[in-house]
Amino acid sequence: MTKKQLKEDNTLALKKELKLLYRNIEKYFAINTYYEIVKKKNPDKLVSLLLSRIKTGHKVLEFGLNPGILTVEAALKNADAIGIDASPMKVVIAESLKHIEYEKFEFIQKLDKMKLPFEKILSCKFRVMPLNYLEFKDESFDIIFSNAGIEQGDLSSYFDEIHRCLDYKGELIIKIDLKRDLTLLIQKAGKEEHVIKATRPEIVKYLEEKKMKMQHSEIIYKESMASFLISVFPFLKGKKFFGKFESIFIVHFQKG
User: Fold this and answer.
1) pLDDT for 48-61, tens place per residue?
2) Distance, CA of 159 to CA of 42 (rounded, Å)
3) Which strands, in side-by-side order, build the sheet including 192-197?
4) Burial 212-250 (b: 16+ CB within 10 A, else e)
């Protein structure tokens, strides 16, 4: 085997290892460029929707870090991107991920000689900030998004601040994990007890009252209520359940 063939074989082996590495972290980091490299469609609808709306120069805010990788995505799309969270630890994690992604892209470029704008990753910023009192001027952002990063709390104060900070015709794109706001209602019917999901948070109604127009809404994942609820509340084993539990909810609003 010649030196050239050996080098080519080593390069192919490295590429296989790289793809394996990406597959292993896919469940944690759904960075869109991964899917472009392995030529797969990104299954995360929030990512696809968000990236389709971002334009060069847009000012973009991630509201609540989970874990902040979408702020990196926005920076790679030439946006002026910032991510905030009330938790200092989440901000530290997001900063660490930013540098990990930078080093990973730097390695890919050396390996494949791809023209990736990976240096833009370092342009995004992360800050500790209370989510019910945003330290930004009115109409500061073109897009505000949350990847299931909105914690339980006074949702009206969160959305008041989001609405204030969105530019005219600005867009809000959020993914909400409904399991986090799950409330239970146990109804007795004779000797049987039925466990059902109570009302969904009235986010859509609230935002429409703020004169924001819904562009899109979708339940993207449903799971058996029985399997989920029993895993959280073992004492419910043996009870009867109704239907499927609406787990992940995506909604897209536009201001103005």
Assistant:
1) 899 899 999 999 99
2) 28
3) 184-189, 192-197, 240-241
4) beeeeeeeeeeeebbebbbeeeeebeeeebeeebbbbbb
- What token pair was written down for 83? 């991510």
Full strand arrangement of the beta sheet holding 213-224: 125-128, 80-85, 59-63, 141-147, 166-177, 244-254, 213-224
**Beta 192-197 vs 240-241: how paired, if at all?**
parallel
What's the angle, vertex CA 27, arms to CA 21 and CA 30, rounded to 5?
Answer: 85
Backbone angles phi, psi at 171, to 5 degrees: -120, 145
The closest alpha carbon to 131, from 153, 147, 106, 110, belongs to 153
Closest C-alpha to 159, from 64, 223, 41: 64
Residue from 151, 145, 135, 140 nearest 72 by CA: 145
Of the candidates 201, 98, 184, 79, the residue with the CA atom closest to the CA atom of residue 148: 201
Neighbours of 57 (CB within 10 A): 9
Task: Identify the CA nearest to 236 among candidates 108, 162, 18, 245.
Answer: 245
Six token digits for residue 187: 């109804």
Four-way CATH pick for 3-254: 3.30.2350.10, 3.40.50.970, 3.40.50.150, 3.40.640.10: 3.40.50.150
More confident residue, 50 or 39: 50
Cβ atoms of 129 and 85 closer than 8 Å: yes
Contact 59, 136 (CB under 8 A): no
> Between vectors from CA 120 to CA 254 and to CA 99, what angle results, nearest 5°?
110
| pTM for the structure as a whole | 0.75
